[in-house]
Write a structure and sequence with these properties.
5-stranded antiparallel sheet; 3% helix; 1 helix; mainly beta; 3-stranded antiparallel sheet; 135 residues
């Protein structure tokens, strides 16, 4: 399963879960990179390839203001995108990226970012999807 924040096919960030691990992945133009990985079940501390994890995992993508946002005279820069997941009461942040690479500033276009869920290799069950806009 993949939770993706994208502007087009060549500019997207995602957090994806497979049987054994959760990954943060980024594609910027022709470059696709796995940024970080973590075991699917953080409580075990190990990835098991012989068994399929049936424990639910909650994938998360969030956007935060630039570090100096709102401070007069500071170059605030772009927003920050965080990728992570929750499982068994534990929250794991996998990566934090510069938001400009999934913006019209870099990628062009005019629609802005979109968020979505898709299955990656096989089938997936989405039990819930929440979108919480910043106040």
């Amino acid at each position: 399963m993949r939770l993706v924040l994208r502007i087009d096919d060549s500019h997207w960030y995602a957090v994806e879960a497979s049987d054994g691990e959760v990954r943060a992945v980024a594609q910027i133009g022709p470059l696709r990179q796995v940024l970080a990985t973590a075991p699917r079940d953080p409580s075990t501390g190990a990835v098991s390839t012989s068994t399929v994890s049936t424990s639910p995992v909650r994938l998360e993508v969030s956007c935060t203001d630039a570090p100096f946002a709102g401070q007069p005279g500071k170059n605030t820069g772009p927003d920050q995108i965080l990728f992570g997941f929750q499982q068994g009461g534990t929250t794991v942040t996998l990566a934090r990226l510069d938001g400009r690479y999934v913006s019209t500033e870099v990628a062009g276009g005019f629609t802005g970012r979109v968020v979505g869920v898709c299955a990656v290799g096989g089938s997936a069950v989405v039990e819930r999807f929440d979108y919480d806009a910043a106040p």
